[in-house]
Write a structure and sequence with these properties.
Elements lengths: L9 H23 L3 H20 L3 H21 L1 H12 L2 H11 L1 H23 L4 E5 L6 H4 L3 E6 L2 H7 L10 E5 L2 E7 L15 H12 L3 E5 L6 E5 L2 E3 L4 H9 L3
Parallel strand pairs: 1-3
Antiparallel strand pairs: 1-5, 2-4, 3-4, 5-6, 6-7
Enzyme class: transferase
Keywords: ATP-binding, Cell membrane, Membrane, Nucleotide-binding, Nucleotidyltransferase, Transferase, Transmembrane, Transmembrane helix
EC number: 2.7.7.85
Amino acid sequence: MPFDIHIMSLKDILDILLVAFLLYKTYKVMKSSGSINAFIGILVFIVIWVIVSQVLQMRLLGSIFDKLVSVGVIALIVLFQDEIRHFLLTLGSHHRANSLFRFLKGNKEQKNQKEDIMPIVMACLNMSKGKVGALIVIEKNFPLDEIVRTGDMIDANINQRLIENIFFKNSPLHDGAMIISNKRIKAAGCILPVSHNLNIPKELGLRHRAALGVSQETDALAIIVSEETGGISIAYKGEFYLKLTAEELERMLTNED
């Protein structure tokens, strides 16, 4: 009796890689939103379902699991609608194409980018020394029009003194977030979605939670200057980068992709 050996084809390898990629992206989104335990629970359920239905071929128990899966898909969409939105945003992001475009344009584009970033860096350093709280959100590919509408329109060139004046303690706009888009200060005093991630350190305040929230729901980069400690932090792609130096801040802003 001939022994049938199944040789993996290129299509099988591609299939495995795509499944691994989707699982990895889902894991990253769930981890950043604090839903990692739910993700692990879903994976365990899927493994049990496959074993019962395909390996052991238990018809009655398998049919029950099949019904639960068909109903559970709708429940998961409702339960994890924010995570699914962020996952689709990540898949649809064209930041790598933008990186290639900037590479082809060469050093001139990098020089212009540094000229736009340095006023932000210098303003953050000055506010850090004076322990002036600030929250600056830099728009990337995902439009922040809805967030911009929650604040006061400014539409001005990026200017160090303007940034510091807006976040001055007696300024009526200092409590909200500043939105920077297309190399211009679009608005200030804006309201951001607050992250409900339970893993956020307790010493981090509302500014940090708002910064993490906008980084989870969009691809924006958020800079936080702590009013209590003067520390400079960044929230990006659902993760914190705390206690940054001037060099680290500049490097992250110029290489945010």
